[in-house]
Write a structure and sequence with these properties.
Elements (H helix, E strand, L loop, with lengths): L13 E4 L2 E3 L8 E4 L4 E4 L7 H10 L7 E5 L5 H4 L2 H8 L2 E5 L3 H4 L23 E3 L4 E4 L2 E7 L8 E8 L4 E6 L10 H6 L5 H13 L6 E3 L3 H4 L1 H9 L9 H21 L2
Parallel strand pairs: 4-5, 5-6, 6-7, 11-12
Antiparallel strand pairs: 1-2, 2-3, 3-4, 8-9, 9-10, 10-11
Helix pairs in contact: 6-9
């Protein structure tokens, strides 16, 4: 297992709906919300794909100079690797779930960089720490934070409204669903509690209580971004509306974790 090659992961940017955009790569999703007073970015991606994210922003007419906040779904290197560089370039402030603070600043070796065989990790000290139920307000947007631990201790999902000026839709960004950090070997190696498995299941059930229109994953495969992008290009304005897909994905995550636990017995 190694770091994905940047030239194999480029993906053309998308205006998903109204003031919501996708500027990430095939390996990691990066979304931007235009708040009217500047941009909020959700996850910065790997440090070695920052040039693609900035290129995609320019293609959509989104100046990096207007980036004000980078909000992270969780503290893994594929989601915060480019953050330190972006902060240096733009002066943007950083946000993450409180329990993942030491993942991001490097005090705990839990960024998953080692497992990806990465030679270096650019860590950062978050400016804002979020707890379950917090509301992050900036510009004309309110972003609701829902703690969804499991994949990491501080994984956080976000819910917010997007608009095209005439219609308002509710978007939900998943905080993290991978089982790679919930295997028996990983939990033991990093001295993490096995209760994270219960947290993961409870998180997925809690997410299913949310009412959304647009399902966003922090990896493209989670929310079938590629397929939806093709429909959008074909003229379907509501290609990313997927209320049922969000619930189905969460239930599938629970099923896969139970299968993992059974396989380890």
């Amino acid at each position: 297992m190694g770091v994905p090659k940047p030239w194999e992961g480029y993906f053309e940017p998308i205006k998903i709906f109204g003031n919501l955009y996708f500027v990430g790569t095939k390996d990691v999703s990066t979304h931007i919300l235009d708040t009217g007073d500047g941009y909020v970015m959700f996850d910065s991606g790997y440090q070695h794909t920052l040039h693609q994210v900035i290129h995609n922003m320019h293609l959509l007419g989104l100046s990096p100079n207007n980036l004000k906040y980078i909000i992270h779904t969780h503290g893994h290197i594929d989601h915060f690797g480019a953050t330190k560089s972006l902060v240096a370039l733009t002066g943007a402030k950083t946000v993450i779930g409180r329990a993942d603070r030491d993942y991001a600043n490097g005090k705990r070796d839990l960024s998953y960089a080692k497992e990806l065989q990465m030679d270096y990790t650019e860590t950062f000290e978050p400016d804002v720490l979020l707890d379950d139920g917090d509301v992050f307000e900036f510009g004309n947007c309110k972003i609701y934070a829902v703690a969804t631990p499991g994949h990491t201790e501080g994984a956080t999902s976000y819910f917010f409204d997007v608009t095209d000026g005439s219609e308002v839709l509710r978007a939900g960004l998943h905080g993290g669903a991978g089982l790679n950090t919930l295997t028996k070997d990983f939990l033991n190696e990093h001295n993490l509690p096995f209760s994270l498995r219960d947290d993961y299941i409870n998180s997925m059930l809690k997410l299913n209580e949310q009412k959304i229109d647009i399902f966003l994953g922090n990896h493209m495969k989670q929310s079938k971004t590629i397929e939806k992008a093709e429909k959008l290009k074909a003229g379907d304005k509501y290609a990313f509306v997927d209320k049922e897909g969000f619930i189905a994905f969460n239930l599938d995550c629970i099923k896969r974790l139970k299968e993992l636990i059974e396989s380890e017995k």
